[in-house]
TrEMBL record:
Protein known as: Oberon PHD finger domain-containing protein
Oberon-like PHD finger domain mapped to chain residues: 154-286
Pfam families (UniProt xref): DUF7081, DUF7615, PHD_Oberon
Parts forming coiled coils: 364-447
Cell compartment(s), UniProt: Nucleus
GO cellular component: nucleus
Organism: Eruca vesicaria subsp. sativa (Garden rocket)
InterPro entries xref list: DUF7081, DUF7615, Oberon-like_PHD
An example Gene Ontology molecular-function term: zinc ion binding
């Protein structure tokens, strides 16, 4: 037999299988082909696969993991495994195979399945599902360094785009909000679905780090302002029962917000614009207001004192260079503001903040001006209401005057015609006119309720008789 024919027959024997690749969702997992080996190294051995949240510009997942059968040798001792029995890269898997199975054909192993996993959310995904072959010319162990990472929400500052080593914990698989085409676990708010901002240390959002299973956290994020408006942050009574906490709508876990707000002052020291500083501190006040916890109350007092200094004209430079001791450092040194005995003792030992000196007469003058403006606005409003009432009441009086004159004329006409069909017709008109007058008199009596003031007059009267639109 010809040598060429022998080589061709050998190549056909090792021809890679035809794989039908279906797009999968972020954080999805599965067993066996097409994304994990089957019957390797022994018949019946099946590998599991899983993908992460990040995708490349080609529409394939950047993060993908392989879980080998537990009976394979050297899994617990190999240095290629970061956690448990998951291979996180092709290089680590190749090293393991060469170490544990020196006689195995590594290229044939990788050719038996597809390492590339297409995403349902890939913006550059090739049209539909097509058969994919692994050619001998491709090295399945070589990564394509030209791939571009893409955030599902289109956020170029998304945390998933940062090239950081894999953490020991991963976000939970989610087929609810994360199944939406433009929702990203890393940067989309679970309440408004808009992207979060990492500006000023990411103070404006909170991340749920509740552990939902071994090595898996919730990982969903939300704007603090959105959570406050939805009564899912701050101090909320009722069945939720929050006390300076955050309630995650995705996993129902609660997160203490005191440590989060505790970072605000350090963040503000790096901010150059006073308006942004006040915005950050005011957000902290909204989170802490109403809390019954000692740590939250002390922290709230400190933030409010800082805001007062700003409003009294203290510059940012003087504010941060102030030698007056504050309680911020004590929070960090006492368990991030938690209500433990050491933290409470630390708060009790803190030297109170000296009151900021201010001009008492100037403050009283300011209050006097505010009250004067309020009374002026009240007088104008009352005068406007008086004018409206005057016009409408006099108009109703004129309406009744016209009806009375018509009634007198009709009665006079009827007295001159004592019999006949005309007299009957005039009697009918007189009765109708008297009934009309009774209705208009009743209307006038209802309108006279404005004597109590518009604020105490029924809404229907104001809308029907005075043509005023009253908001809910």
């Amino acid at each position: 037999m010809d040598t060429t024919d022998t080589n061709d027959q050998s190549n056909r024997d090792v021809e890679p299988p035809r794989l039908l690749l279906r797009p999968v969702r972020p954080m999805e997992s599965g067993v066996g082909l097409p994304y994990a080996p089957e019957n390797w190294p022994m018949p019946g051995d099946t590998w599991r696969w899983k993908v992460g949240p990040r995708i490349t510009g080609k529409g394939t997942f950047l993060d993908r993991y392989l879980y080998p059968p537990k009976h394979l040798p050297g899994l617990s001792s190999t240095e290629t495994m970061r956690k448990g029995t998951a291979f996180r890269s092709r290089l680590s898997l190749e090293r393991y195979i060469r170490l544990a199975f020196p006689d195995a054909d590594v290229h044939k192993f990788f050719a038996s399945f597809s390492w590339a996993v297409p995403s349902t959310d890939g913006i550059c995904m090739k049209r539909s599902i097509m058969p994919v072959y692994t050619s001998d010319g491709e090295d399945p162990m070589q990564d394509n360094v030209s791939d571009v990472l893409v955030c599902k929400a289109g956020n170029d500052k998304c945390g998933s785009l940062l090239m950081m080593p894999p953490s020991e914990t991963e976000p939970m698989p989610c087929d609810i909000c994360c199944s939406e085409p433009n929702f990203c676990t890393y940067c989309s708010c679970t309440l408004c679905c808009k992207s979060i901002s990492v500006e000023h240390g990411g103070y404006s959002y909170v991340k749920c780090e509740a552990v939902v299973s071994e090595g898996i956290i919730c990982g969903h994020v939300a704007h603090v302002n959105c959570a406050l408006r939805a009564y899912m942050a701050g101090t909320v009574g009722g069945s939720i029962g929050l006390d300076a906490e955050y309630y995650c709508r995705r996993c129902d876990a609660k997160k203490d917000l005191v440590p989060h707000v505790n970072r605000f002052l350090e963040v503000c020291k790096t901010v150059e614009y006073q308006g942004d500083v006040e915005k950050i501190l005011n957000l902290g006040i909204c989170v802490l207001r109403g809390s019954q916890r000692v740590s939250a109350k002390e922290l709230l007092n400190c933030i409010e004192s800082t805001v007062i200094k700003l409003k009294c004209g203290t510059s940012l430079e003087d504010l941060w260079n102030d030698d007056t001791p504050t309680i911020w450092s004590d929070f960090s040194e006492s368990g991030e503001g938690k209500d433990n005995d050491d933290a409470l003792q630390s708060l009790q030992d803190v030297t109170p903040i000296e009151p900021m000196p201010f001009n008492h007469e100037a403050e009283m003058h300011k209050l006097e001006e505010e009250i004067r403006e309020v009374l002026k606005a009240l007088r104008e409003a009352q005068e406007s209401e008086y004018q409206i009432a005057e016009v409408r009441l006099h108009a109703q009086k004129e309406c009744l005057g016209d009806l009375y004159r018509q009634l007198e004329e009709e009665k006079s006409e009827m007295s001159r015609r004592v019999s006949g069909s005309d007299a009957d017709s005039l009697m009918t008109n007189v009765l109708k006119r008297m009934d009309q007058i009774r209705k208009e008199v009743t209307k006038l009596k209802e309108m006279e309720e404005v004597a109590k003031g518009f604020g105490r007059t029924r809404r229907g009267i104001l809308e029907e008789y005075f043509h005023l639109t009253i908001e809910e």
